[in-house]
Write the structure tokens for this entry.
Amino acid sequence: MIEVKEITKNYGNGESSFQVLKGISLKIEDGEFVVILGASGSGKSTFLNVASGLERPESGKVLYDGKDITAFSDSELTEFRKENIGFIFQQYYLLQNMNVEKNVKMGADLAGNRDYKKVIEAVGLGKKLHKYPSELSGGEQQRVSVARALAKNPKYLFLDEPTGALDEETGRQVLDYICELQKEYGFTVIMVTHNLNIAEMADTVIRMNSGRVAEIYKNQVRKTAYEIGW
């Protein structure tokens, strides 16, 4: 379980300092699919960064199964992320001089996973192991980033607008892959998105507004990537 307690986060210094997160508290159960919604500037991406350990809060705690990661040293926090956390962003962040296999192997090596080719097959890129990013479509590049994140065998997968740069068909395909892999591997998904329809795929939806949690609700029925609007 992830438990966030009274998290605050500021950016800037002195008179130019402003508070982005204003005392957020919530819980995320293991194995959940959580979608975070909110307008630009609501603090949802900052919350994702703090909850995942990419950034430190000004105050408050972030606990994973009772362990407060905000109390970790930098090296302990890096080790924690390496062992537990996967990230997928709107930008693919692939290394252009490495082919599909080598990009995914980078993630696998962090966890000592030698069985990473199964993940490449799972995202439908088994026949493109030796293709370079410049030879792939945007959807294929995003699937490589999905495979790279999952090759770490993460317990928690954080996604920041993963379909933001994709067309509808490709976006649905990527979301479907993520959901199928979640069913197989059982990891927790925490996704930030502007697409209100994607919220219908979640177990739990968190709405943020002006650095606070405005609403949390659960879906009685989860829709698939091909059942939602776009």
